[in-house]
Specification:
This protein is mainly alpha-helical and 433 residues long. Helices cover 70% and strands 5% of the residues. It has a domain of 154 residues. Strand 2 and strand 3 form a beta hairpin. The longest helix is centred in the middle third of the chain and has 49 residues.
C-alpha cells in the first residue's frame, strides 16, 4: 500500500506529474518507431528472420533495440551505437591528455565530450547500418528452419536502396539519441537508460508467451519464480557496497573552522555494472562477422562449434571469462585509487589507521580488487543464466535473467531514487524506506 501511495503522491505534484507524463510520451514515440519498417526491406521476410534470430551475441544486440533489429525497423540499431561511442570516449579519456583535461574542466568539458560522443555515434551508426545491409543480403542469416534469408526483395539490392536503408537506420539512431536527451532534460531519470529499459521490458510479453506455448502455464509460472529470485539477487548485489570510513581534520580558514567531519567512500561490489557484459558480447560478435569473411572450412567449423552456439560449454566458458576480465578492466579505468587518495589528502581527509597518500591508494586498490571478484563472478553467472536455462529446458528464449534483469533493476532503482528525492523535497512519503 505504501508503494501505491507513493505513486499517487508522485502524480499529485504538478511538476513531477509533467515529467513522468513527458517521459511516457517519449517512450511511446520510441516504441512506435521500433515497429515502422525500414525502406527497401521485404516486410514478410523480416518475420521469418525474427523467428530464426535466437541466441548468442546477435540476440544481445537485438535486446537493446527492443526487437526492432529482427523486424528491421527504422530504430533497428537501437541505442547500441551511442552506448559503444560512450564507452570508447570513456576509454580514450585515459590515453588522450586533451580528453582528460576536458573531463576535469567541469560542465564545459563535459559538453565538449558529449558533442564528440554524438559525432562518433553517427559514424558508428553509418558503419553498422552498412554492415547490416550487406549481412542481410548475403544469405548468412537463417530463419527458424535454417534456410538463408535475404531481407531485400528480388533485384532490390541496388546502391540507391542500400543508401536509403543506411541513411534511414542512421537517422533512426540519431533520433533515439535526441529522444534520450529530451528525457534527461525534461523528464525523469537518465534518458538513455530509460530507453534501454523500455526496449528490454517490451520483449518480456512475447518471450513469456513463447515459454507458455512451449511449456504450458506450469512452466511459465516456474520460470517467473526463477525470475523473481534473480531480481532479488540482483537488487541485493546492486545495493551491496563496502564503506571505507574517512575522517577530515579540522582546519581554520580566517575566522571559520572547517572539517572535523566523518564520512565514507562507497565501493560497490559490482562497480562496473553491465559494462563487462556489453564488452564481452561485442568481442564475441566479431567471430560471427569473421565467419562470413573467412572461407576456410576448418576455421568456420571451429568458430561455429565454440563461439557461436550459446548453449555449448566452450562458448559459456569463454563468455564468462571475458565478463570477469572486463569487470576488472573497467573497474580499473572508472575508479582510480591514486586520484581519490590525492583528493582526500588535498582536503585534509584520511582513512583511520592508514597514512594519507600512497598507502591510502594501495589500501583502496587492495579493497577494490577483493570485492570486485565476487561482483565479477556474479555478473558472469547472471550473463550466462539465459543460455544455461535455454540449454537445460530447450527454450527459444528466457526473458527473466541475464543482462535484461541486471539493466532493468539498475534503471528502476536509479529512477525510483530520483522520484524519491523529488517527493522528499515536497514532504511526501517516497518509495524507499
Amino acid at each position: 500500500m505504501n508503494l501505491l501511495a507513493a505513486f499517487v503522491n508522485a502524480f499529485k505534484v504538478p511538476d513531477l506529474r509533467k515529467k513522468i507524463l513527458f517521459t511516457l510520451m517519449i517512450i511511446a514515440v520510441y516504441r512506435f518507431g521500433s515497429h515502422v519498417p525500414a525502406p527497401g526491406i521485404d516486410v514478410q521476410k523480416t518475420q521469418e528472420f525474427a523467428q530464426g534470430a535466437q541466441g548468442g551475441a546477435f540476440t544481445f544486440i537485438n535486446l537493446f533495440s527492443g526487437g526492432a533489429l529482427t523486424q528491421m525497423a527504422v530504430f533497428a540499431l537501437g541505442i547500441m551505437p551511442y552506448i559503444t561511442s560512450s564507452i570508447i570516449m570513456q576509454l580514450l579519456t585515459v590515453v588522450i591528455p586533451k580528453l582528460e583535461a576536458w573531463q576535469k574542466e567541469g560542465e564545459a568539458g563535459t559538453k565538449k565530450i558529449t558533442q564528440w560522443t554524438r559525432y562518433l555515434t553517427v559514424v558508428l551508426a553509418l558503419l553498422q547500418s552498412t554492415g547490416l545491409a550487406f549481412l542481410f543480403h548475403r544469405g548468412t542469416i537463417t530463419d527458424a528452419q535454417g534456410q538463408p534469408v535475404d531481407l531485400f526483395p528480388p533485384g532490390g539490392f541496388t546502391p540507391a536502396r542500400v543508401g536509403l536503408l543506411v541513411i534511414s537506420l542512421t537517422a533512426g539512431t540519431a533520433l533515439i539519441m535526441w529522444l534520450g536527451e529530451l528525457i534527461t532534460q525534461r523528464g525523469i531519470g537518465n534518458g538513455m537508460s530509460i530507453m534501454i529499459f523500455a526496449s528490454i521490458i517490451s520483449t518480456f510479453p512475447s518471450e513469456g508467451n513463447a515459454i507458455y506455448q512451449q511449456k504450458g502455464l506450469g512452466g511459465l509460472l516456474f520460470f517467473i519464480a526463477i525470475g523473481i529470485l534473480v531480481v532479488i539477487a540482483v537488487v541485493t548485489m546492486e545495493q551491496g557496497q563496502r564503506r571505507i570510513p574517512v575522517q577530515y581534520a579540522k582546519r581554520v580558514v580566517g575566522r571559520k573552522m572547517y572539517g572535523g567531519t566523518s564520512t565514507y567512500i562507497p565501493l560497490k561490489v559490482n562497480q562496473a555494472g553491465v559494462i563487462p557484459i556489453i564488452f564481452a558480447s561485442s568481442v564475441l560478435y566479431i567471430p560471427q562477422l569473421l565467419q562470413n569473411v573467412v572461407q576456410n572450412q576448418t576455421v568456420q567449423g571451429f568458430i561455429e562449434r565454440n563461439l557461436l552456439d550459446a548453449t555449448k560449454i566452450p562458448y559459456m566458458i569463454i563468455y564468462g571469462s571475458l565478463v570477469i576480465f572486463f569487470a576488472y578492466f573497467y573497474t580499473a579505468i572508472s575508479f582510480n585509487p591514486k586520484d581519490v587518495a590525492d583528493n582526500m589528502k588535498k582536503y585534509g581527509g584520511f582513512v583511520p589507521g592508514i597514512r594519507p597518500g600512497r598507502q591510502t591508494a594501495e589500501y583502496l586498490d587492495r579493497i577494490l580488487t577483493r570485492i570486485t571478484l565476487p561482483g565479477a563472478i556474479f555478473v558472469a553467472i547472471i550473463a550466462l543464466l539465459p543460455d544455461i536455462v535455454r540449454a537445460w529446458q530447450n527454450l527459444q528464449a528466457f526473458p527473466f535473467g541475464g543482462t535484461s534483469i541486471l539493466i532493468a533493476v539498475g534503471v528502476t532503482l536509479e529512477t525510483m531514487k530520483q522520484i524519491e528525492s523529488q517527493l522528499t523535497m515536497r514532504h511526501y512519503e517516497g518509495f524507499l524506506k
